[in-house]
Write a structure and sequence with these properties.
It holds the Pfam family LysR_substrate. By secondary structure, the protein is of the alpha/beta class. It is 41% helix and 21% strand. Strands 4-3-5-12-6 form a five-stranded mixed sheet, with helices on both faces. A three-stranded antiparallel sheet has the order 10-7-11. It has a two-stranded antiparallel sheet with strand order 1-2.
Length: 307
């Protein structure tokens, strides 16, 4: 049996195209032509001697072979990028002060710190999980080197747009949230909150009555209240607990931007390195092209049977 040696550049185009839901977007992101990326995919299919994509409606989806290859390709690229980061910055040392929204404070922070500490064992990270206003205040005051925060329209001098994510209605799949024309119960952060405002504005526009059933300054408390069936909430898919679901047939919500803020225009090498790893890990965390599929798989909270 002949031994295959995959081209990592080809795998990177393949993985990015799947994550973005478009190989044209992947080509633009990588600075290549669409025809060049198409040639890479043809090369990949020739190597595995099986189709890796099939047409579904107007788009393309993975075949069983493609799903297997996609899983291994992500692991190969992660190991390659970790090795490259490690050898390029083996002498780095110091401290980086990082701030994050709660949505990214559990799984994402654990993975990011793990990748970073393996590559740079002599750099210490001081992490702070907080809400937007405090994060921006700490960056502006020089008490954080980096902060990953939602776009509230009040940026900092040295910030970088990362991505834009759809806000989603989230709840339990087995709950009836409205009966006898009662207002829709909402679970939300204490005011002011961007996503709380988005939820109430959307409901008001759709003329759906609502009430605030539970508030908290803690995201873990928000998830617990939604999990207990007290109401529905609005967040993005980032950090969504597995026992909760995206809810369909609800008023449309806007997207929200994600911004990486820096305290300095020319940050120190350890800060630059952590920025790079943050952005790579965010690519893996936020497969936003799947949101439409997830929404279609869940029914409306206004129509579900009691659970």
């Amino acid at each position: 049996m002949r031994r295959l040696t995959f081209d990592l550049d080809v795998l990177r185009s393949f993985v990015l195209g799947i994550k973005l839901g478009s190989f044209a977007k992947a080509a633009e992101h990588l600075g290549r032509s669409t025809s060049a990326v198409s040639a890479q995919l043809k090369k990949l299919e020739d190597q595995v001697d099986n189709p890796i994509l099939r047409r579904s409606g107007r788009g393309m989806v993975l075949t069983p072979t493609g799903e297997i290859l996609f899983s291994y390709a992500k692991r190969l690229l992660e190991l390659n990028d970790e090795a490259a980061t490690s050898v390029q910055g083996i002498e780095l040392e110091g401290c980086v002060r990082l701030g994050l929204q709660e949505d990214f404070g559990e799984h994402f922070l654990t993975e990011t710190l793990g990748n970073f500490s393996r590559a740079h064992p002599r750099i210490r990270i001081e992490a702070r999980v907080s809400r937007n206003a405090e994060l921006l205040e700490l960056v502006m005051g020089g008490r954080l080197d980096l902060a990953l925060a939602w776009d509230a329209g009040n940026g900092t001098p040295y910030s970088q747009f990362v991505t834009e994510l759809p806000m989603c209605w989230i709840g339990r799949a087995d709950c009836t949230y409205v009966s006898n024309n009662e207002p829709l119960p909402l679970v939300a952060f204490d005011s002011p909150c961007l996503m709380r405002s988005a939820a109430t504005n959307a409901l008001d526009h759709a003329r759906i009555p609502w009430r605030v059933a539970f508030t908290s300054p803690s995201l873990s408390s928000i998830w617990a209240a939604v999990g207990a069936g007290l109401g529905i909430t609005v967040r993005t898919q980032a950090g969504l607990p597995k026992h909760l679901h995206l809810l369909g047939d609800m008023p449309e919500l806007p997207n929200i931007g994600l911004i990486l803020h820096r305290a300095e225009s020319e940050p120190a090498p350890p800060v630059r390195r952590l920025s790079e790893i943050l952005l790579v890990n965010l690519d893996d965390l936020l497969p936003s092209h799947r949101l439409g599929e997830l929404r279609r798989n869940h029914s409306s909270p206004l129509k579900q049977g009691a659970g």
